[in-house]
Structure prediction request, 205 residues.
Amino acid sequence: MLFRSLSLSLFAVAATLINPTSTSAQAFTEDGHAIAIGYGGVTMLGSISQNFDEYGDVNYKGMGPIYFKYEHGMTDKIGLGINVAYAQNEWAYSYATTDANGNAVTYKEKTSRSAYSILARFNYHIGSDDKFDPYVGFGMGYRNATWKYDTTDPDGTTDVDISGLMPFGMELTIGARYFFSENIGLYAEVGAAKSVVQGGLAVKF
Prediction:
């Protein structure tokens, strides 16, 4: 009897979250629109950077990932939209060697990477508050990364341009928006995307 009562209680709570009966306004609505611009952190570039540990004077600089998101409310729980992300990374380094005459020389090299993705996005919204909007999101679509390599070594190969071999991209995140005014707020997400965490400005209309 206790187990049955507990099960019914949990079912009632879940049903309330999925289909809330509250008449208060929701932050996410059917036929509503939302856009967001954000910046990401905690990427997976550490393993790539280790490849340059054997060189000297290694300097790294990067930008992004930068995110742009658009979502349209198909229902008051389901949103469909598009996510665009872009990032740039550059490693500059040097190495010492000897030339054909046996003289000691130092060459400088640079490896750069630019990556972007354009994904169709599905969000399931699990809240009913008029300011706080939590959701789970899944994205799938196109991605690409281009690598370039330059060197001052006269016998080296320069201007090498290599595109990524896997043009298919996916992401799975959990996140939330919080609107501190009727239309403007902030968003944050964590999960498997171009970065582990991201956040920025959110606008609904």
